[in-house]
Amino acid sequence: MVKSEIRMVLLLVFMGIIMIFVMMPTTTFKKVWFPSIKAKTQSTYFGSAGARLLIYTFPMLFIAALGCVYLHLTKNNEDIYKKSDKENNRISIWKTPVLVKGPLGIVTGTELAFFIMFIALLVWSFASYLVMSFETINKKTAAKLGLTVWQDKLESAGLRFGLVGNIGLSFLFFPVARGSSMLALLGLTSEASIKYHIWLGHIAMVLFTAHGLCYAIVWGNTGHLHAFISWRKADISVVAGEVALICGLAMWVTVIPRIRRNMFEVFFYTHHLYIGFVAFFVFHVGFAYTCIMLPGFYLFMVDRYLRFLQSRRQIRLLSSRVLPCDTVELNFLKDPALRYISTSIVFINIPSISKIQWHPFTITSNSNLEPEKLSLMIKKEGSWSQKLHQILSTASSVDHLDVCIEGPYGPASTHFMRSASKHRTITY
Q1: CA–CA gap between residue 95 and residue 220 (Å, rounded)
Q2: Same domain? 294 vs 359
Q3: 408 and 298 together in one domain
Q4: For 177, which of 251, 275, 303, 406 could close a Cys bridge (C-beta 3.0–4.6 Å)?
Q5: For residues 119, 122, 128 and 134, what is the CA-based torsion angle, rounded to 10 degrees?
Q6: Membrane: is it a keyword of this entry (predicted)?
Q7: Among candidate residues 274, 308, 342, the one where a domain is terminated
Q8: pLDDT at 127
């Protein structure tokens, strides 16, 4: 009973969040809803940011907090996975890949539906913003700003690109918060959610780049080059926006498959520029407007801090074996209370090889059959695994091998595998 009520509350709050994003570009929200909420929430502590904290930040954090309670109540409860064959078949249809090749990768029916709806939200928001702004632009209003009509419209379009880009930024960090309850509530794993982060990153950077280009074209045509170096304390800081955009472009360039695959360390270290990107983004738009993207970033930072604390603890290596086919087996001592299922992964770091490199591996042991042991199988492929193979081949080095582990991460259940295999046979 309690769980069903929590599900209902979570659904209602989520629908409310969607409604806010849909209504955000309308005059009703801008002139009626938001002023009314702002008048009631402006306080000594939060000031002008109170309304946006209530509208954008609080609902997301409320879902994350209540989601933790729900997941705790459903822990070790297999009843939530027991569905009829008819229900399983209906769900499996939506989880069947509908796109295999293409820029989006492997996409299921559910993912494609949500992707289309998200793009529709962006198009709706941009079109609504643009229509409202163009209605007020004419020769007289443009002349007051020292612009022509097309320059004023282009500048207005640039502003709207930035506003819509912030929607993509609002969801950008949710998929990379590995231990977040948000992913578990949706039945998503951290590794499967990376593609959503990639999609959102591309969308946000396209919009933010267009945002910057529009302003650059207008300022270049009007000769207002001094605007490029303006930093207003009480308004938009252009310099901060430029630094944030440069950080974003640097990360965006290293996402190119050829760079990411051949120079992964360049990609990895460059992505730490997200700290500079977010910091200067806050300076660019101000804290009040940052509240729109704050929930995702906040949950990501909490998750990142908890993972940092976990990764600092070293785990005891029970034994290791060098197997044929250039493969090594590592067996670690673990707490019997640590439970995981098949297909779970862990990230391991061996300081004697590299203090900063973390590599993911699939767990090969079963926590039910071996409650005090966690096993990994690692094949000698790259330079890191070659060094590990070399260390383990020397008996004297194994006793002093320090290993740090982060995880495990994996799906909340494999019931979908059981339901799928139940009705399918393979013929040769």
Answers
A1: 49
A2: no
A3: no
A4: 303
A5: -110
A6: yes
A7: 308
A8: 94
300 with 380, same domain: the answer is: no
The whole domain housing 386 covers 314-418
Pick from 189, 171, 236, 180: nearest CA to 67: 180
Residue at 213 is within a domain: yes
- Tell me if 43 is assigned to some domain: yes
Domain match, 302 and 204 both:
yes
**Does the pLDDT at position 416 exceed 50?**
no
**320 and 295 co-located in one domain:** no
Question: In this structure, which long-range contacts are made by residues 174-180, counting pairs with CB atoms below 8 Å and at least 24 apart in sequence?
Answer: 174/296, 174/299, 174/300, 175/200, 176/300, 177/296, 177/299, 177/300, 177/302, 177/303, 177/304, 178/303, 178/307, 178/409, 179/303, 179/306, 179/307, 179/409, 180/64, 180/299, 180/300, 180/303
235-280 tens-digit pLDDT: 788 899 999 999 999 999 999 888 888 888 888 889 999 999 999 9
> Do residues 32 and 102 both lie within one domain?
yes
Query: Of 249, 277, 308, at which residue does a domain stop?
Result: 308
Residues 6+ apart with CB under 8 A from 207: 122, 161, 162, 164, 165, 168
Residue with structure tokens 């780049």? 209
Instruction: Please give the structure tokens belonging to residue 64.
Output: 């994350």
φ and ψ at 366, to 5 degrees? -115, 125
The residue type of 394 is: T
Report how far residue 271's alpha carbon sits from residue 294's, in angstroms, rounded to the nearest whole number: 19
Residue 269 token pair: 């270290």
Comparison of pLDDT for 98 and 279, the residue scoring more: 279
Is residue 82 domain-resident?
no
Whether 25 and 122 have beta carbons less than 8 Å apart is answered as no
* 82 three-state secondary structure: coil
Rounded Cα distance, 189 and 178, in Å: 8
Q: Could you tell me the CATH number of the domain that includes residue 319?
A: 2.40.30.10
Predicted pLDDT at 159? 93
How sure is the predictor about 93, in pLDDT bands with cuts at 50, 70 and 90?
Answer: low
Tally of domains within the chain:
2
pTM of the prediction? 0.83
Nearest in space to 224 (alpha carbons), one of 146, 294, 279? 146
In degrees and rounded to multiples of 5, residue 319 shows phi and psi of -160, 165
